[in-house]
Amino acid sequence: MHLKRLELNGFKSFAHKSEFVFDVPIIAIVGPNGSGKSNVVESIRFVLGEQSVKSMRGKTGADMIFKGSKEISKLSRASVSIVFDNTDRVFHIGQHNNTKINVDFDEVTITREVYSDGANKYLINGHEVRMKDIHELIASVNIGASGHHIISQGEADRYLNSNIKDRRELIEEALGLKVYQYRIKESQRKLKRAEDNMRESEIMRRELAPHLRFLKRQVDKIEKAKNLRSELGLKYQSYFANEDYLRRKLARDLDIDREKIQAEYVQVNDFFKNYGEVDTQKIFSEEQDIAKAHKQIAELNVKITQERQELGRIEGMVAMLVKQQEASQNKATDSSIQKKHPGFSYDVVAEFLTTVTTQIDLMGVSRHVTFQTIKDRIKEFLKSPVEPAALPTFVDNSSEIKNLEEKKKSIHDNIEDLLGIIDSTQETINQLGHLLSTKRQQDQKSQRQYYEYVAKKKELDGKRALITTRDESLGLRANARNEEYQEALVLLGVSGIQYQTIAIEHDMDVTTQSQEVARREMERLKIRLEDIGGGSGVELIQEYEETLERDQFLEKELEDIKNSIESLEKIIEDLKETLNSQFNTGVKKINEQFDRFFKLMFGGGKAKLEPAIIKKRKRKASDGEQLELISEDEDQKVEYGIDIAVQLPRKKVSDLDMLSGGERSLTSIALLFALSQVNPPPFLVLDETDAALDEANSQRYGDMVEQLSQFSQLIVVTHNRETMSRAQTLFGVTLGKGDASTTLSLRLEDATQYAK
Ligand code: ATP
């Protein structure tokens, strides 16, 4: 790969189209001061995508356009094209607008145009591309817009002039390690962005947290309320279903009971209708009849007694008459009491018998006939004098006895009759008694029944009152159910209490008690619901979900950022490691060449690049320029820059500042060439790098240029004849008509002259 052509049109002093053909290893551009040679170098920077207008000696993009002269009017566009040989296909590029930019050609042409408004246009092989694409394309062949391969006028000793830190960067660039720096910087930028993002996300998340917590609490409440509502809904459903069933059942039971009571009433009323009033003082005729019969018997007994008295008297009389008759017959008299008082037994016994028979009971007898009365009576009798005249004489009493015996018989019969009457009367009494007891039993039974019915009626009255109460309470129950239903509607809506479809096990034990238990449970749920409060909270839930999603997004993002920070840190570390190791290897190689070129230039001595610690400022001291160093302990991350150590032959030089202008220039060239040797760019542009050299050094410079041209194509802007002599092609640049630069190919013989 090498440079084939450069075409300028309207760029700076090149008002007209000018072409440089580079088909040899060393090309020299010569011409008088101010003719536009440096403009050619700058056109190369320009076309390769240089963004710093300052580095092209301009203030704006428009400064790159020919600004006009007396003869030539100002232009509105500048265009530069550079043509590379690509027969070895070294150029590579990615995609543009999803189409791969095709560089698979023998030639690759890069074009850049700038317009008076500062707008730029980039083209690769005539196709418009982005600036980025140009950078990518030239990076693929180890060249860059402001790269080390274009050394502008006075820029040769920039390696010497820069500080150790910048020098290191320049050397890194020359070693082609800039890509690592880019990547490190890019990664660091990304890292910073990531850290910023992380902070931002953290802040956002922190800000979100209390709101999210608040929302979560609300949503938890709503969730709880929702659960309670569905629980309540289920309770309501079974409650209403059960209640309807229970009410129907209660009403049915009530009807049945009412009918039953009604029927019982009919029965009881019928009983009373048939029964009439109960006489508790009822007197039975049998009782009177029995009393009458008893009186009769008593009277009969009196009669019997009288009869018996009569009989006794008669028997006494008979016995007396018999004795009279016997005594008169036997003439016998005794000193016995019997003989002396024949009338005794009769009188006393008769008297007693009378007394006894007039008494109905034995108590009466014992009252009248006591042992004492009998004794007294006997004593009284014994005191009375016995009349001897009264002593019986024989008499005949047979007829009288016979009469008396007949009388006795009649009395006996009479008594028998009376006893018979008593017996039959007693029989009657027995019969009556039997009848009476039967009647009494019947009466008692009937009374008992009556009272039973009275009690039954009372019980029925009670039952009827109970039925009324039950009826009323059924009504109250219906009201209560309706009130409960209305409340349920308000709380849960119709859909929440759809219970009609609920199947009830009809044989299940729904009772008023079980319903009351259910109702109390519902009340408890309602109270809990009321405590929680709040509506359905659809919006709140939505807000919570959105906030949660946002929070989770942030959490995920933070995680991602953290991961990317970690991987970026790792990438940076790796890149730095690679950079360092490649840099160290590179510096080693440079030093070999640097020392060689230095010795060549100075005819001896020593030169090398050395790592040097970059001293960091801890803080800027308030009293001016005094700086504080940070010890290594304080900061582990020590950064190294590059110092240049030189030792001139025959001279004791310890510092670069002690070098003369020429020596500085020689040292710079030695380093420059060493760099180019170690990592040769496809081409190298040197704008009057040889300006300060004396003749002897110009010779050495020429030798080195020739050496270098083996690795890189060289475009040298020079006034130096020695340098010119090493070029295969010479271009003369001159300021022609209308202050426009013009070009022409020269022969060496003419060149020296031309350059002046
Ligand atoms: P030296 O040998 O002294 O370094 P040089 O050949 O490198 O000179 P340049 O510096 O390339 O010359 O050219 C400078 C010339 O270009 C000046 O004459 C300047 O007026 C001219 N020039 C620069 N920019 C423009 C522009 N935009 N339009 C017209 N002329 C311009």
List the helices and strands and how they pair.
Layout: E1 3-9, E2 18-21, E3 26-30, H1 37-47, E4 77-85, E5 95-96, E6 99-100, E7 107-115, E8 120-124, E9 127-129, H2 131-139, E10 150-151, H3 158-161, H4 164-174, H5 178-275, H6 285-330, H7 337-340, H8 344-358, H9 362-368, H10 371-383, H11 398-496, H12 512-532, H13 538-602, E11 606-613, E12 617-620, E13 627-629, E14 640-647, H14 661-678, E15 683-687, H15 695-708, E16 713-717, H16 721-726, E17 729-735, E18 741-746, H17 748-755
Parallel strand pairs: 3-16, 3-17, 10-15, 15-16
Antiparallel strand pairs: 1-2, 1-4, 4-7, 5-6, 7-8, 8-9, 11-14, 12-13, 17-18
Bound molecules: adenosine-5'-triphosphate.
Give the biggest beta sheet: 6 strands, antiparallel
The coarse overall form would be rod-shaped
CATH superfamily of the largest domain: P-loop containing nucleotide triphosphate hydrolases
Here the CATH topology of the largest domain equals: Rossmann fold
What hetero molecules are bound to the protein chains? adenosine-5'-triphosphate
Describe this structure in words.
By secondary structure, the protein is of the alpha+beta class. It folds into 3 domains: 3-176 and 663-755, P-loop containing nucleotide triphosphate hydrolases (Rossmann fold, 3-Layer(aba) Sandwich); 180-276 and 505-593, no CATH class; 285-443. The protein contains 17 helices and 18 strands. The strands form 5 sheets. It has a 6-stranded antiparallel sheet with strand order 2-1-4-7-8-9. Strands 10-15-16-3-17-18 form a 6-stranded mixed sheet, sandwiched between helices. Strands 5-6 form a two-stranded antiparallel sheet. The model is unreliable at 332-336 and 624-633 (pLDDT under 50). It binds adenosine-5'-triphosphate. Adenosine-5'-triphosphate binds next to helix 1.
